[in-house]
Design brief:
- The structure holds 2 protein chains of 2 kinds.
- A 4-stranded antiparallel sheet of chain A has the order 3-4-6-5, covered by helices on one side. In chain A, strands 1-2 form a two-stranded antiparallel ribbon.
- Chain A is 38% helix and 15% strand.
- By secondary structure, chain A is of the alpha+beta class.
- Chain B is elongated and about 60 Å long.
- In chain B, 6% of the residues are buried.
- Classes of the chains: A alpha+beta, B mainly alpha.
Chain lengths: 184, 72
């Protein structure tokens, strides 16, 4: 959404909820309204935010960084439009599936789960995943996210992602490097 | 003027959107979105001008008269 991964952050996401829970939502909510001449205006609604109610005791605040992330994402969405975003999603999916397919053909790599995937998939290695990750990192590739720390049942499993930012050469380099690391 | 009010249907930024076809046929139909997200469809130049104009609407101590008093 126009915000690159940068060593774990900053990043942003979307939150939605049912109307009855809207007062529990953190942050500010902008609503569309109109003035006495029926002119459309955008205002901060549900202003009962922590900063206003608890004043100096507030532990949360909206900061410049969030504003910057939102501005960047808004500009990105304006540039891409709905059709552009659809293309980015489809391209990411295709890249992820090409990579998943190539990796599944390596010995010592098994593609996990059969449910439909978007741009991420899980592989299980027969060798210790942290060693593989370190070797891949030496070749300049952040190969994935180790799942066994959070899901002990997924031993030596790696969550791999490919987005539209990756070229055919990038994907091939990932496969070739992993092949080399696995000693094939 | 909102960016949405400047939007024209089917306007595409070809330097960002390649209009290539990508394979999504392995995703079940019921999981695929059928409509296009309601985002403004603008040219790159319109977007640049829109956000540059917005940025200049910021109220700032360097550019405007303010009620702040500098105490030494």
């Amino acid at each position: 959404m126009g915000i690159p991964l940068a060593s774990g952050g900053p990043y942003f996401g979307f939150m939605c909820c049912r109307k009855k829970h809207v007062r529990q939502m953190p942050g500010r909510i902008v609503g569309r309204t109109h003035d006495d001449q029926k002119r459309i205006g955008y205002v901060l609604t549900l202003q009962a935010r922590e900063q206003h109610i608890r004043r100096s005791k507030a532990t949360s605040n909206i900061c410049t960084n969030q504003g910057l992330m939102v501005a960047a994402a808004t500009i990105y969405m304006s540039i891409m439009g709905g059709r552009g975003l659809k293309e980015v999603a489809a391209h990411s999916h295709q890249n992820a599936m090409v990579l998943a397919n190539e990796l599944s053909q390596l010995s010592g790599v098994e593609l996990m789960f059969t449910a439909p995937k978007f741009h991420e998939f899980v592989i299980q290695l027969t060798t210790p995943v942290n060693k593989v990750l370190k070797a891949m990192s030496k070749a300049g590739i952040q190969a994935g996210f180790v799942l066994s720390d959070d899901y002990p049942e997924l031993e030596n499993c790696l969550l791999v992602c490919a987005t539209e930012t990756k070229t055919e050469e990038d994907l091939q380099r990932y496969v070739a490097t992993l092949k080399q690391v696995l000693g094939q | 003027m909102l960016s949405f009010e400047k939007s024209r249907e089917d306007r595409i930024n070809r330097s960002f959107v390649s209009q290539q076809q990508f394979a999504v046929s392995d995703i079940p139909e019921k999981l695929l979105r059928t409509d296009i997200a309601k985002l403004p469809e603008l040219s790159e130049l319109q977007v640049v001008r829109h956000y540059t104009r917005l940025s200049r609407k910021n109220f700032s101590i360097d550019a405007h008269f303010t009620h702040w008093v500098h105490v030494r």
